[in-house]
Design goal:
This protein has two domains: 2-216, Rossmann fold (3-Layer(aba) Sandwich), CATH 3.40.50.300; 220-288, Alpha-Beta Plaits (2-Layer Sandwich), CATH 3.30.70. The strands form three sheets. The chain has a six-stranded mixed sheet, sandwiched between helices. The protein has a four-stranded antiparallel sheet with strand order 2-1-4-5, with helices on one face. The protein is built from ten helices and 14 strands. Strand 4 (57-62) and strand 5 (65-66) form a beta hairpin. It is α/β, with parallel strands linked by helices. The chain is elongated. The longest helix is centred in the middle third of the chain and has 16 residues, at 162-177.
Length: 289
């Protein structure tokens, strides 16, 4: 069963393209990544999906229901964490969260204190006195206390320190094991690599590729570091990218059959050689180039 489906979903801002012909299928129970730099169209897609923006063309469904005709039903089952949060200053976090919970059929009011302790959030301080990071913690609680079946997270860790980020990821893993589907938008690739099963790569409002994370990491790409006795002129073979000399050390990325690389290495006067699996950042930049 697909929890999210979009069909050529597009949103224009006048002559500017926000997103163009986005087609995604996200299965129940998946942790699905949405990768792209700032300005690529991630937030535009999410806001259009949630009905905050009216699509210029195309359509989408969540839980099999059209996002335009059934938004009030759909939102009962969704927890949304925006990249930036803005609240009424006069309220405390506790007042905000209890007010928010009353919009839903099955709020878990008891979880407010537990989650606040987990994220070290002072519930009775005025929101206007909270730092950006603490406002983000409040938004995390807000996205969870009504026990959503789908979590939509837009750049969720901005403002969180490393300790809180780790607690947040552990909480997401726990929620996913309970069956919650998670749509995780980020430009921080290590987060996507840790959390997600599959990911869509978006550039300039369009999907470049949809990949299994493990398949991405297992692609025929290597990061190489060669050490020569001295710097020398070498003829590079096809597949070598981004070569960089530092004295007698050569680093580069390689895409291609590994036996071709090994055959070439055997012809060189090397002191040492290191081949490593690429991180997601390297693979991502390869798509963008």
């Amino acid at each position: 069963m697909n929890v999210i489906e979009s069909f050529n979903l597009s949103k224009n801002y006048g002559k500017e393209v926000g997103i163009k012909n986005i087609n995604l299928e996200i299965k129940k129970g998946e942790v699905y990544g949405f990768i792209g730099p700032n300005g690529a169209g991630k937030s535009t897609f999410i806001r259009t999906l949630l009905g905050f923006l009216i699509p210029s063309s195309g359509s989408a469904k969540i839980f099999g229901k059209d996002i335009d005709q059934n938004s009030h039903i759909i939102r009962q089952k969704i927890g949304y964490l925006p990249s930036e949060v803005h609240y009424y200053d006069g309220m405390t976090s506790r007042e905000l969260l209890e007010y928010h919970a009353r919009f839903y059929d099955k709020p878990d009011i008891e979880s407010i204190n537990d989650l606040a302790n987990l994220f070290e959030l002072e519930l009775d301080r005025k929101i206007e006195d909270l730092s950006f990071g603490n406002k983000k913690k409040c938004a995390i609680l807000q996205s969870l206390i009504h026990q959503p079946e789908l979590l939509i997270l837009d750049e969720p860790t901005s403002g969180l320190d490393p300790l809180m980020q780790n607690r947040f990821f552990e909480l997401l893993e726990k929620e996913n094991k309970k069956g919650t589907t998670i749509f995780f938008s980020s430009h921080i690739l290590t987060e996507v690599q840790r959390m997600c099963n599959r990911a869509a790569i978006i550039r300039k409002g369009q999907i470049n590729a949809i990949e299994n994370i493990q398949d991405l990491l297992e692609k025929q790409m290597k990061k190489a570091r060669f050490i020569f006795k001295e710097k020398t002129n070498v003829k590079f073979i096809d597949g070598i990218q981004n070569p960089n000399w530092s004295n007698n050390k050569l680093t580069f990325d390689y895409v291609g059959p590994i036996n071709h690389l090994i055959k070439w290495m055997n012809q060189l006067d090397l002191v040492d050689a290191v081949l490593e699996e690429p991180d997601l950042e390297t693979i991502f930049m390869n798509y963008y180039q």
